[in-house]
């Protein structure tokens, strides 16, 4: 795992990023997921994202809960610190970690069971607190490790591999996040890495919680006829409504676009999210409009994807709490202990 | 200590008088502002230099239900709860019946006789002191809220006159509390106080034979509750992240931390906070946040009570197995389930020792008063860091929420946090070998790294089976190696935990053993028993797991009375399970009705056992001294008495 280094082969195709690292430096151990699992494609997109952003691997904190999705942080950025929390509780670990060290880059990988059933409460509250992290929800509508039970994102009418039909309402993480006031909401498809990578890049650079719901089909238990989370169903119903490019801070924007077709939304660090394909009647910075739009498309039977909403005025947990710029975990004891005179002053009130 | 009128005492006055040995109970309704009036009385007695305690017996309610406040002042320093009241201030007609029935023979009741007292409430053996508080107040004050508040000050005035509490001291405390700015309010309070004071002196034999006289016992003492003191301990230990979910009786701990953090943890340049206090959505998240922050290397904690510990158990097991420091304050209340949220108990002793599924065991510290809450809060962070494991600070509602007179804690400026074995970036850069869960030093304690410090320090923290290099495993050998080392680490910790407090008498073959909030009652009971010719040594535990010193103490006595406040003799269970002491030497004394323990309860049970009237020493015996009166709950504790 972390300690087994793959043989390093210097090859011209191994392009170095701004800090001299190749994509190989952002890989992890071999996946133990099923061949063809959507999650492995998401992992590949995550590796590409961290490489492109030139993030030092050891400055990444990667977290997960329990389930197939929770296994994936071992498969990327092996020099990052990882935390496999208990089922559905990754958001609270991430919140506390972020409170203690605001300088690391946080990525949480979850699934529909982990986030929408056992962890629905923590998902809701991590969104409310706007913890500065990328929250990837690998959504396949099914419990894989326990062999094929419906999850809370399974659509009504969808059929399990066993033939059982789901009658319960689905929880849609995108609509849920929008209604809870999430400041960055996107949906991707594990089969479309080109679309996913810029979304993940923007999500990392967003100051606040970036929720990225990724339809990530389960090849073993939910990729059959009658499933609404299969590769085929997703390919047939996906509509990329909101295409974006991510333009890092230091890169000059050179591509020419036809006037009126692009819209740039600046991020806190000076990078830019460039919306290059947005329907005329859709404003992705307007949360209510985004909600109505996504809802309408879904009612029409589409699976709308893209960066569906971003709030450029997002204030994360630290800005709201007004915590010190230096990570709390790095403050020296001298800055934390008020000292004996102060204690005498305090205790004088208890007479 | 003196028990009856005229008994010789260092503080005895004229024949027939009893000086500085007073227990009173004040009965009011919740939400009437009586808490500040009662605290004023208690604080004034404290300022007179007399050892004193105040016990708030309050309902889980915002307004309307009955509430009681008990004050015991004792010149000899015995300040356990005393349910043998010399004076009952009955201000709540809804509880007249039980309040009057609860007074000892020869005691007195102060009541508002603006309206006549029902004749069936009269008792021949009790002196009734009627004072027309409502009627007098109505002559001077307007507005129903003001009338209620001023009535409170009226009984404070009358009680002060009856017990000879210094009027000037009361006025000073009042002025400090209200602040000089609120002159009008202050004058109204003085007036209301004097209405009661003057009426009492005119109509009653003031002061009573049972009364107070200024001493000088509190010069280096403070009057503080355990939750505030624990919060200060967290502040001084350098804690930066507090995550919590509101629950009685722990709420005030995190609130105090936040208050002091806002005052003492400001960046001098920007004014931003060097602390984060996060109110979580539940205790599961509160524990997770503290754990996440600890993982990053911050000193983090949460405070809760029994129901919260139940919810946190999942993360407690994760912290144990992943070896991440975690400081949790458990301010115990009466269980099981929701139980009696505003009443005290020691019902979580077994829970904190072994919380969570699988083989888990935890370090626990047991403060007995607010001064120790401060001391052990600081120690908890050092121990959590040193042993990379959850540490519980196990307090209770009585310690946490009531005001106690304790020695003023002083701060040792040479204190520096013990952060334990953490490999730093320089050491990793220099090529230090890092094996997260390997026992490289032979003490069971591995080295850890903090996220973000160095690429060579990276590893995967996981609650699933792992080997000594933090790699996932499902193999018996590597799995067992880690959990066996964890066991060695925990057993090794015992010698480094706060030592027990031991008091000895030469030749004693009996002993009392107790924990936490039982201390004051046990020490007083031991003193009283000695006067009755029963010599007993005493040990108060301050930590779990138990050290060799604890085991040796148990083994050297023929009979050990284990005193605790829960039904199931949880402390006795722990002693039986975790030491070699023969089970039948441990006699259980338990009181768990929700009110703080009294010395009389302990001494009576010891004497009953020695006299053979006791029905047995097992923890689950039925009947006998432990059912019925001694287990009395609620405000009417018949059979309880002060020794």
Feature tags:
heterodimer, A: alpha/beta, Rossmann fold, 11 helices, 12 strands, 28% helix, globular, B: 643 residues, alpha/beta, Pyruvate-ferredoxin Oxidoreductase, domain 3, seven-stranded mixed beta sheet, six-stranded mixed beta sheet, 23 strands, 36% helix, disordered C terminus
Please render the helix and strand layout as text.
The complex is a heterodimer of chains A (351) and B (643).
Chain A: H1 38-52, E1 60-64, H2 68-71, E2 81-84, H3 90-100, E3 105-111, H4 112-116, H5 120-129, E4 133-139, E5 142-143, E6 149-150, H6 173-179, E7 184-189, H7 193-205, E8 209-215, H8 231-237, E9 238-247, E10 263-266, E11 272-277, H9 287-299, E12 303-310, H10 317-321, H11 340-347
Parallel strand pairs in A: 1-2, 1-3, 3-4, 4-8, 7-8, 9-12
Antiparallel strand pairs in A: 5-6, 7-12, 9-11, 10-11
Helix pairs in contact in A: 1-7, 3-5
Chain B: E1 18-19, E2 21-29, H1 34-47, E3 52-57, E4 66-74, E5 87-90, H2 96-101, E6 108-112, E7 127-131, H3 133-140, H4 144-163, H5 167-178, H6 183-203, E8 210-211, E9 221-225, H7 226-237, E10 241-244, H8 251-264, E11 276-279, H9 283-295, E12 300-304, H10 306-322, E13 326-332, H11 349-354, E14 363-365, H12 370-387, E15 390-396, H13 397-401, E16 403-407, H14 425-429, E17 460-462, H15 476-493, E18 501-503, E19 510-515, H16 519-531, E20 536-541, E21 543-544, H17 548-555, E22 559-564, H18 570-578, E23 586-590, H19 599-610
Parallel strand pairs in B: 1-8, 2-5, 5-6, 6-7, 10-11, 10-12, 12-13, 13-15, 14-15, 19-20, 19-22, 22-23
Antiparallel strand pairs in B: 2-4, 3-4, 9-16, 14-21, 18-20
């Amino acid at each position: 795992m972390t300690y087994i280094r793959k043989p390093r082969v210097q090859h011209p195709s191994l392009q170095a990023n701004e800090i001299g690292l190749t994509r190989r430096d952002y890989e992890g151990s071999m996946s133990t997921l099923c061949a063809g699992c959507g999650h492995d494609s998401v992992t590949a997109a995550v590796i590409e994202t961290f490489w492109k952003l030139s993030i030092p691997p050891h400055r990444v904190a990667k977290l997960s809960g329990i389930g197939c999705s929770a296994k994936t942080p071992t498969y990327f950025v092996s020099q990052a610190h990882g935390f496999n929390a208990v089922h559905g509780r990754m958001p609270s670990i991430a919140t506390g970690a972020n409170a203690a060290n605001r300088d690391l880059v946080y990525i949480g990988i979850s699934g529909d069971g982990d986030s929408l059933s056992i962890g629905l409460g923590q998902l809701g509250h991590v969104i409310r607190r706007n913890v500065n992290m990328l929250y990837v929800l690998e959504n396949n509508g099914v419990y894989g490790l326990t062999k094929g039970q419906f999850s809370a994102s399974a659509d009504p009418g969808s059929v399990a591999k066993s033939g059982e039909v789901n009658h319960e309402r689905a929880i849609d993480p995108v609509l849920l996040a929008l209604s809870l006031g999430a400041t960055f909401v996107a949906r991707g498809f594990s089969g479309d890495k080109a679309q996913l990578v810029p979304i993940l890049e923007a999500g990392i650079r967003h100051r606040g919680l970036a929720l990225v719901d990724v339809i990530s089909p389960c090849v073993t238990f939910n990729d059959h006829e009658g499933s609404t989370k299969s590769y085929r169903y997703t390919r047939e119903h996906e509509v990329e409504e909101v295409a974006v490019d991510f333009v890092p801070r230091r890169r000059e924007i050179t591509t020419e676009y036809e006037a009126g077709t692009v819209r740039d939304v600046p991020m806190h660090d000076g990078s830019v999210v460039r919306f290059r394909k947005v329907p005329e009647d859709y404003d992705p910075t307007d949360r209510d409009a985004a909600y109505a739009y996504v809802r309408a498309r879904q009612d029409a039977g589409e699976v709308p994807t893209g960066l569906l909403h971003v709030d450029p005025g997002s204030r994360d947990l630290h800005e709201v709490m007004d915590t010190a710029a230096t990570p709390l975990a790095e403050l020296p004891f001298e800055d934390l202990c008020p000292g004996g005179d102060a204690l005498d002053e305090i205790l004088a009130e208890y007479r | 200590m003196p028990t009856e009128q005229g008994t010789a005492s260092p503080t005895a006055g004229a024949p027939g008088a009893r000086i500085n040995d007073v227990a009173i109970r004040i009965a009011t309704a919740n939400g009437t502002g009586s808490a500040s009036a009662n605290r004023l009385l208690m604080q004034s007695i404290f300022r007179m230099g007399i050892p004193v305690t105040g016990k708030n017996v309050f309902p889980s309610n915002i307004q309307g239900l009955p509430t009681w406040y008990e004050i015991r002042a004792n010149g000899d320093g015995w300040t356990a709860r005393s349910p043998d009241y010399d004076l009952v201030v009955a201000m709540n007609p809804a509880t007249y019946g039980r309040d009057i029935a609860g007074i000892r023979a020869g005691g007195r009741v102060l009541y508002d006789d603006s309206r006549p007292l029902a004749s069936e409430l009269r008792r021949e053996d009790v002196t009734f002191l009627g004072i027309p508080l409502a009627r007098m107040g109505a002559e001077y004050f307007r507005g129903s809220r003001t009338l209620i508040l001023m009535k409170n000050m009226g009984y404070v005035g009358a009680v002060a006159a009856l017990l000879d509490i210094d009027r000037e001291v009361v006025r000073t405390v009042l002025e400090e509390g209200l602040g000089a700015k609120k002159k009008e309010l202050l004058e109204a309070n003085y007036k209301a106080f004097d209405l009661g004071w003057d009426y009492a002196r005119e109509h009653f034999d003031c002061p009573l034979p049972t009364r107070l006289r200024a001493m000088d016992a509190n010069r280096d003492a403070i009057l503080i509750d355990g939750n505030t003191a624990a919060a200060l301990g967290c502040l001084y230990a350098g804690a930066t992240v507090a995550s919590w979910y509101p629950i009685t009786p722990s709420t005030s701990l995190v609130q105090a931390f936040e208050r002091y953090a806002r005052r003492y943890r400001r960046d001098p340049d920007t004014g931003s906070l060097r602390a984060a206090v996060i109110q979580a959505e539940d205790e599961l998240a509160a524990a997770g946040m503290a754990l996440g922050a600890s993982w990053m290397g911050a000193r983090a904690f949460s405070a809760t009570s029994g129901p919260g510990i139940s919810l946190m158990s999942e993360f407690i097991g994760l912290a144990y197995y992943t070896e991440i420091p975690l400081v949790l304050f458990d301010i115990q209340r009466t269980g099981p389930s929701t139980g009696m949220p505003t009443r005290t108990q020691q019902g979580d002793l077994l829970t904190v020792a072994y919380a969570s599924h699988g083989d888990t065991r935890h370090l626990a510290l047991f403060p007995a008063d607010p001064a120790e809450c401060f001391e052990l809060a600081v120690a908890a962070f050092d121990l959590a860091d040193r042993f990379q494991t959850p540490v519980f600070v196990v307090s209770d509602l009585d310690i946490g929420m009531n005001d106690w007179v304790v020695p003023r804690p002083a701060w040792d400026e040479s204190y520096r946090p013990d952060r334990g074995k953490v490999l730093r970036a320089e050491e990793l850069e220099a090529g230090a070998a890092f094996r997260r869960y390997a026992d490289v030093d032979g003490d069971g304690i591995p080295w850890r790294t903090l996220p973000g410090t160095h690429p060579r320090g990276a590893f995967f923290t996981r609650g699933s089976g792992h080997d000594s290099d933090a790699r996932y495993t499902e193999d018996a050998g590597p799995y067992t190696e880690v959990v066996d080392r964890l066991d060695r680490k925990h057993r090794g910790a015992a010698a480094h935990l706060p030592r027990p407090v031991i008091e000895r008498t030469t030749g004693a073959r009996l002993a009392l053993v107790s924990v936490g909030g039982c201390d004051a009652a046990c020490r007083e009971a031991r003193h009283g028993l000695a006067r009755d010719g029963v010599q007993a040594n005493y040990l108060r535990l301050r930590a779990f797991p138990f050290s060799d010193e604890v085991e040796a103490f148990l083994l050297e006595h023929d009979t050990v009375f284990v005193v605790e406040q829960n039904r199931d003799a949880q402390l006795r269970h722990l002693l039986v399970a975790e030491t070699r002491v023969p089970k039948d030497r441990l006699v259980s004394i338990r009181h768990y009705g929700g009110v703080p323990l009294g010395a009389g309860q302990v001494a009576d049970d010891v004497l009953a056992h020695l006299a053979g009237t006791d029905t047995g020493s097992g923890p689950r015996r039925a009947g006998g001294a432990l059912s019925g009166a001694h287990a009395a709950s609620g405000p009417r504790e018949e059979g309880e008495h002060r020794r």
